[in-house]
Structures are given as structure tokens and as C-alpha cells.
Design a protein that fits this description.
The protein has about 240 residues and is an alpha/beta fold. It has a single domain, classed as Rossmann fold (3-Layer(aba) Sandwich), CATH 3.40.50. The protein is built from nine helices and ten strands. Helix 8 links the parallel strand 9 and strand 10. The termini are far apart.
């Protein structure tokens, strides 16, 4: 009788553990977004729609503007310092100006094995009324990977306007998000996050491809300047064979 009782207790424990695992697997992973600007808010809004909890990382988490953003977005959104936010999630989005990130990275703690989404661009130089090519023979994505050698950097979301992320129908319903990165598993995870919010991922290859993805933003801005405010989005459709 005692043996049956013990076995029943073990069985109940295993069943409860399996149930907890099933619930955890059914939930959506938390995403940390460093930055509370338009891009960060747009991505947060879209991922919230499909069930991902969001934690914003901010230099000033107690700022009234930041607290209002978080409150307006709902109960599954929180805010913390950038270091605390990055520690809470396995996917971290650097929705920040690139210039600020170089000093920020050393303060973030251990980001080993985390998936880092890089939507950043170098500050643009306009020469003769048009964006000039990059001065550095590299990309923001490659530089970020060098700063975070044990993390998995994926270039993504640097080309679209925040409004078109929120509503792809503004661009005809097809908005491509080119991806570049060294880790195939990380790119697969980011591609799934892109697809979840109604956008179209396109794996362009290793992180060196980030150089050309960042050039796409220069072309976009050049088009806006040349056409006096008109804009476009990229729809990169693989050819069917």
C-alpha cells in the first residue's frame, strides 16, 4: 500500500511537471526592446498583438513619458533599466541610435547566446542632396557582433518605416525584412518573429550581407529626398523554380 502511495505521488509530480512544461511551451517568449522610440514602440505593439510579453529597456525607466508608453500598452508590458531588461529575455532588440550603443554594450552584462536583433543604421551623410555611401568598409551589424562575440546578432528591421510595420497594408500588404547573420538558428527564430506580425523575412546570408541591407536604407532615404517626401517599401520575392 505504501509503495502504491509513493508511486502515485511520483506520478502526480511528473504529471504536474509535464503540465507546467506544456503551459510554458504554449506561451510566447518575452522580448526585450532597448529603446522607446517609434521603431521600438511599433515592434512592441505588433508582438503584443500575437501574445509576446515585452520589457522595454530604458536609461530613464522612471521618466513620465516612458511610464505612459508602458501603461498605455497594457499589462504584459514592463520597463526596466537596459541591463535588467536584457537579462529577462532571450531575444533582445537594439532599437537605438547606433552611436549610443557603443557605450551602452559594456553596461549590459552577459548577453552570451542571446539572439540580438539589430535594426540600426549608421548616421547618414547627405552629399549633393543624396545619401552618401558608408565611410566604413563594414556594417553596424558586424561591429555589434564584434562587441558581443558570444551573442547571436541578426540584422533585421533596419529598412521599413515604423508606420508600415504597424500596418503593412499601407505598402500594399507586402513588406520584406531582409535578414543577415552567422547563426542559422538565430535567423530562424527572428524569421518566425517577422512572420508572426505579417511581414516577410528573407535570409540574405551571413552577417557581411548586413552591409548591403544597410545600403537599402540609404536608397530609401534618397528616394524620399529625390521625390519630395514620397516613400516606398521593399518587397523582395524569391523566384519560384
Amino acid at each position: 500500500m505504501r509503495r502504491r502511495t509513493v508511486l502515485a505521488g511520483v506520478g502526480a509530480t511528473i504529471a504536474a511537471s509535464a503540465l507546467r512544461r506544456a503551459h510554458a511551451q504554449a506561451g510566447k517568449e518575452k522580448i526585450a526592446i532597448l529603446g522607446t522610440g517609434r521603431l521600438g514602440q511599433a515592434l512592441a505593439t505588433c508582438w503584443l498583438r500575437v501574445g509576446h510579453p515585452i520589457v522595454f529597456g530604458s536609461r530613464t525607466p522612471g521618466d513620465e513619458r516612458v511610464k505612459k508608453i508602458v501603461t498605455d500598452m497594457g499589462a504584459t508590458v514592463s520597463v526596466a533599466t537596459s541591463r535588467e531588461a536584457a537579462a529577462q529575455a532571450e531575444v533582445v532588440v537594439f532599437a537605438l541610435p547606433w552611436k549610443a550603443v557603443k557605450d551602452l554594450v559594456p553596461t549590459l552584462g552577459d548577453l552570451s547566446a542571446k539572439v540580438i536583433i539589430d535594426p540600426m543604421n549608421e548616421a547618414l551623410r547627405v552629399v549633393d542632396g543624396y545619401p552618401a555611401p558608408a565611410e566604413a568598409a563594414t556594417s553596424v551589424g558586424e561591429q555589434l557582433q564584434a562587441l558581443l562575440p558570444t551573442a547571436k546578432v541578426v540584422k533585421a528591421f533596419n529598412t521599413p518605416a515604423a508606420a508600415n510595420i504597424l500596418n503593412p497594408a499601407r505598402a500594399g500588404g507586402h513588406v520584406s525584412i531582409p535578414l543577415a547573420g552567422a547563426d542559422l538558428g538565430a535567423k530562424t527564430r527572428v524569421a518566425a518573429l517577422v512572420t508572426e506580425i505579417g511581414l516577410e523575412p528573407l535570409d540574405t546570408g551571413p552577417l557581411i550581407a548586413a552591409r548591403y541591407i544597410e545600403d537599402l536604407l540609404r536608397l530609401t532615404v534618397g528616394y524620399v529626398i529625390y521625390n519630395k517626401g514620397k516613400s516606398f517599401e521593399y518587397h523582395l520575392a524569391p523566384v519560384k523554380t
